[in-house]
Amino acid sequence: MSLLLYAALSAVSWHSCLAADPAALKCLSLQKTLHIENTMVLNTEYVAGARNVTTPGSCQSTAKVEGAPLCRVQFVVNTTSTSSVYGEAWLPDTWYGRFLTTGNGGLGGCPQYSRLNYGSSMHFATVGTDNGHDGNTGLPFLHHPEVINDFAFRAIHVVTVVGKQIVAAHYGAPAAKAYYLGCSTGGRQGTQAALRFPDDFDGIAVGAPATDWNHLIGSSGIKSHYVGGTAPAPFNNTSPKFIPAALWPMVSAEILRQCDGKDGVLDGIITEPDDCAFNPAPLACKPGQTADCLRPPQIQALRNIYSPLLDKHGKLLFPRFTPGAEADPKAAQIFGGPMYQYTADWERYVMSNVTSYDFTDFSVRDIARWDAINAGGIATFDGDLSAFRARGGKFLSWHGRRDPTQLIPAANSKRVYELVAQTLRLRPHAMDAFYRLFLVPGMAHCFGGVGAGAIGQDDGQNAVNTSSHNVLLALVDWVEGGKAPSTIVGTAEDGTERTHCRYPMRSVFDGRTFVCVQA
Ligand SMILES: *[C@@H]1O[C@H](CO)[C@@H](O)[C@H](O)[C@H]1NC(C)=O
Ligand SMILES: *[C@@H]1O[C@H](CO)[C@@H](O)[C@H](O)[C@H]1NC(C)=O
Ligand SMILES: *[C@@H]1O[C@H](CO)[C@@H](O)[C@H](O)[C@H]1NC(C)=O
Ligand SMILES: *[C@@H]1O[C@H](CO)[C@@H](O)[C@H](O)[C@H]1NC(C)=O
Ligand SMILES: *[C@@H]1O[C@H](CO)[C@@H](O)[C@H](O)[C@H]1NC(C)=O
Ligand SMILES: [Ca+2]
């Protein structure tokens, strides 16, 4: 983002609030009184009542502020001579002494304003960042290894260190506890924080983490490839393997026919998709049939999509696509025709330093090459959380079981759980002491989907505001009260609730309701 833009912005808002309110004056004075290494305070703005504020960058133009009154501090931190990170701190007047850093999504150049709004509404001093570049594309990475480093591990750490200093200056005392909340790429960032900067947070809540990044993004591209995607958009996929959008509902219906009832309830939710051995054969065209059926290359594409990705030695590279998740509209990002955008961007702008690339032969060999480069240490697939555990950190993870976006199947979070347990040689009861994973049947990517998906993970997802139903409050109770969450109760759009179990417990229908039982 250009410094010119920041300069213009700061000139406007400094004068826009003329209130004599002491809280407002204190907020505005931060612009002059804050002196933090490598950091320029661009603007401070006192938001006296709920309203929208203007936002810099290309991601959005306004953001809603419901946690007002609060002090909004916009800043930029130089991370190297060729990279910088934009950050915002939202400091509510009614502060409960807690600090919260929020993560990003996708290719991550957009502060997640909904989480800034959510965190500050819950009375956390809340920080967010652009993760070192503007916009949700990989183009800023091209020939910019330090921008990649910001994205891969540094931005969250830097805004956390600076954010804590801003909090201490504003309130006259440091935060008592520090938390992290993020989903998707934000889930990976939170995991990276626990691995690389174990002192930054007392509690970390992550959803649908994009961990094992190289395999995740590589396998997403291979999944696009299964249906004939060989180039990024715009690209007209005319492959015989391509499955047009109109035929996917038929695939979903067949998957539900085969697997919905396995959990004892025909409700459109597959509680344990990893137990669904979907067989696409019934969808094949019968002799003479030309419509509403699939031809052999399409059937083969489905077999590939719903099979785990193995390397040439037969070792698992990445879990399969989740049966049932194809029903989510976002699945079209992978199966809609073109090569998945994040795979295309990561290959071109990071792995190959080019602007155009031929994906015709994209394969597991390319994933091996990505592994070898592992730009910025982005993989984030390391089970050694010993330092975070030793400092008393608590790690709460959730993952929707109908997650299609970026192909982050919940099975990947099970893998990460097992990796941590194996690396630290911990049995489930010992894992429970610091690391808990909640699997949410029916939930799409981070939130939404079908089922009881509101668990306090973001703005608009806080249907019941208590720690039994809210991952952020559950984490606070765990860190500050030693009360670990045994379950998380989610709320569906129609207000019905379902108890979500912590892995490795299973969610089982007892004839009346779903209960959690030992695996
Ligand atoms: C950050 O870097 C820019 C460009 O190199 C420089 O102009 C600016 O003074 C630096 N800011 C701080 C606070 O060090
Ligand atoms: C305020 O911002 C939200 C999203 O950030 C947007 O949906 C809404 O339209 C905005 N309202 C106004 C009045 O600009
Ligand atoms: C939800 O609970 C938290 C913690 O008690 C509180 O800070 C917050 O104001 C509550 N939010 C709403 C919308 O009631
Ligand atoms: C891409 O280019 C940058 C700078 O030109 C270089 O430092 C980096 O190593 C290159 N990346 C790869 C994967 O070759
Ligand atoms: C895609 O290609 C086919 C075959 O060449 C053509 O008929 C069709 O119009 C094209 N569609 C678009 C959207 O370009
Ligand atoms: Ca079911």
From TrEMBL:
The reaction(s) this protein catalyses: feruloyl-polysaccharide + H2O = ferulate + polysaccharide
Main EC class the enzyme belongs to: hydrolase
Record InterPro entries: AB_hydrolase_fold, Tannase/feruloyl_esterase
Gene3D superfamilies per UniProt: alpha/beta hydrolase (3.40.50.1820)
Pfam families, alphabetized: Tannase
Keywords: Calcium, Carbohydrate metabolism, Disulfide bond, Hydrolase, Metal-binding, Polysaccharide degradation, Serine esterase, Signal, Xylan degradation
Keyword Hydrolase: yes
Family statement: Belongs to the tannase family.
Protein name: Carboxylic ester hydrolase
